[in-house]
Design brief:
This protein is of the alpha+beta class. Helices cover 27% and strands 21% of the residues. Strand 12 and strand 13 form a beta hairpin. The chain starts with 10 loop residues before the first strand and ends with a helix.
Length: 551
């Protein structure tokens, strides 16, 4: 293999040589010293709306109570799952509006030695750890210590030794590592984790020299534990302190996650659920793996109580609002982690498909809407976390045996909650400017002078033909329907656009209006639909929005 001198130390594989070349024994290079901590970038100036923006809210004041009423069914479902799958221990929790509102903890810490479990018993959460590692990276980004779109080798120089598959490959970025699109494989070639000793940083970094990528960065998605192990080392370099210390100080402590640890030896006696494997139909306790420097991918131990706090923190980022920020991570950054990374949206192009967020997986479900989730599977433990940000609900399940189907359990739990009819999404109330615009249209219907609406239209926005067509339509509708008024119902599409129900003398209408974002908002779009009733009109609008997502 020959090395091509290009900017940013991008190394290329030739067409003949395989992508990965092992190092000769004993030639591992020492890990480079930590980089100096970068000074935070100067804050950018932002301008904000003078008044509070409309905040999405739940319309049913009894919503949380109705969801909590599903507790007996949810708990029975957990018990049936534990019995059917013969789980040593299972911890299930449902978070509603930031509170661990429903819980069920079943079984024993160890099938040989027994020991009761409760919400404070620690389980290993496996790859759910990646969601916290991603949060740490976002915290460093927010502090100006790194850029998601900078080459990852800028912060972890050993990555300058990887070999790119094509000459037009761009450098691997921090964002590529976060979204599993770096080209790195699932696992590295350093010695696997064992029960005897920790994996060292030196071991991991020394194997990167000549390590071949499977694809050009940013072109394919391939789940990579190696990528997140490297993100942990990268976070430590950017922070100027070891990964564990930064995680503890910047995230776990502010979130009150005092029952969370990075090693089984840190868990108090009698508080650890032992890992188990199935062998010949029997359950056998095993010793947990020691991940050491690769722990950013899957190393965390946590209780149901602490995971409930973490889920509550994630859900509390929604909706966007004017309240003061929490200490751990900006709400906007948490919401960013819940977005579909490939298209910059919360939703993929088609309903029902999955895609990577930042540390999370994201799905647009045709029934549940925006779903954010991650599962974990490691050395005798299983975990699953599901968030419904728009509905203020999250579910977490932990078990101390590998291969427990906790993802199916969580789906069934969400089904039980959905059956209450109370697991609805927040509704954005129309902004005052949009409501005033709709009121102006309603007032022009059935009146002698529909041209009075002119003062509510943005000058120069409507052509003469469009203006005359609108006035004629208002006149004609008024002739058929009589005078109309807003009936109080609305479907909001954005801060500047909504559809309102109108009750008229001779039937019902719906009117969709859009206004601009100037200091004095005026109408830029109007459309009217006739219906047999306002409820039918708005349900039709909701159905159209849902079908557009799920086609």
């Amino acid at each position: 293999m020959r090395t091509i001198a290009v900017p940013l130390s991008v190394r290329l594989a030739t067409a003949v040589v395989a992508a990965s070349i092992p190092l000769a024994s004993g030639c591992a290079a020492p890990a480079p010293p930590p980089r100096p901590v970068a000074a935070p970038a100067p804050a950018l100036t932002q301008r904000f709306a003078s008044g509070p923006a409309p905040t999405p809210r739940f319309l049913d004041p009894a919503r949380a109570q109705k969801l909590r009423a599903a507790a007996p069914e949810v708990q029975a479902l957990a018990q049936r799952t534990a019995d059917r799958e013969r789980l040593p221990a299972l911890a299930l929790g449902v978070v509603i509006d930031g509170e661990l509102a429903i819980r069920k903890v079943i079984g024993v810490r160890d099938v040989v030695h027994g020991g009761a479990v409760d919400e404070h018993t620690r389980f290993r959460v496996g790859s759910v750890t990646k969601t916290l590692t991603a949060a740490a990276i976002l915290r460093l980004r927010d502090e100006g210590r790194l850029s998601l779109d900078a080459p990852a080798a800028r912060y972890l120089p050993a990555l300058g030794g990887v070999v790119y598959p094509t000459r037009d490959s761009r450098p691997m970025t921090v964002r590529d590592l976060l979204t599993h699109s770096s080209g790195l494989p699932r696992l590295g070639v350093f010695s696997p984790a064992s029960t005897e000793r920790d994996v060292t940083e030196r071991e991991i970094l020394s194997t990167l020299d000549g390590f071949g990528l499977e694809s050009a960065p940013g072109t394919e998605t391939s789940y990579s534990n190696l990528g997140y192990s490297l993100l942990g080392l990268l976070a430590g370099r950017a922070a100027g302190v070891p990964y564990r210390r930064f995680m503890n100080d910047a995230l776990l402590a502010p979130l009150g996650m005092s029952e969370t640890a990075w090693d089984a030896s840190q868990v108090p006696a009698g508080a650890l659920a032992s890992p188990h494997v199935r062998s010949g139909g029997a359950l056998t306790p095993i010793q947990p793996w020691r991940l050491g420097a690769s722990e950013a991918a899957a190393g965390l131990y946590a209780s149901l109580s602490d995971m409930g706090r973490f889920v509550g923190f994630q859900l509390a980022a929604w909706p966007a609002r004017d309240e003061p920020e929490a200490a751990a991570l900006r709400r906007s950054s948490v919401r960013e982690s819940h977005m579909m990374a490939r298209n910059g949206s919360a939703f993929p192009a088609a309903g029902g498909e999955d895609g990577p967020g930042l540390g999370w997986q994201v799905r647009e479900d045709c029934d549940l809407g925006h779903v954010v989730f991650h599962n974990g599977l490691i050395d005798g433990y299983s975990a699953s976390v599901v968030l419904l940000p728009q509905r203020g609900v999250g579910v977490v399940a932990l078990a101390n045996v590998a291969g427990a189907d906790l993802e199916s359990l969580n789906r069934k739990v969400l089904g039980k909650l959905d059956a209450t009819g109370a697991m609805v999404a927040r509704v954005v109330p129309p902004s005052p400017s949009v409501r005033r615009a709709a009121q102006a249209v309603a007032s022009a219907i059935g009146r002698a002078q529909p041209g009075r609406i002119d003062r509510s239209l943005r000058p120069g926005w409507f052509s003469d033909t469009d203006h005359q067509t609108l006035l004629q339509e208002l006149h004609d509708v008024g002739q058929r329907m009589g005078a109309c008024a807003l009936d109080g119902s609305a479907v909001v599409e954005s801060a500047t656009s909504a559809r309102f129900g109108l009750q008229c003398q001779h039937g019902a209408l719906s009117v969709a209006v859009r206004v601009d974002t100037s200091p004095d908002p005026l109408i830029t779009s109007v459309s009217l639909d006739e219906h047999t009733g306002s409820t039918a009109a708005l349900e039709s609008a909701r159905s159209r929005l849902k079908l557009a997502r799920c086609r």
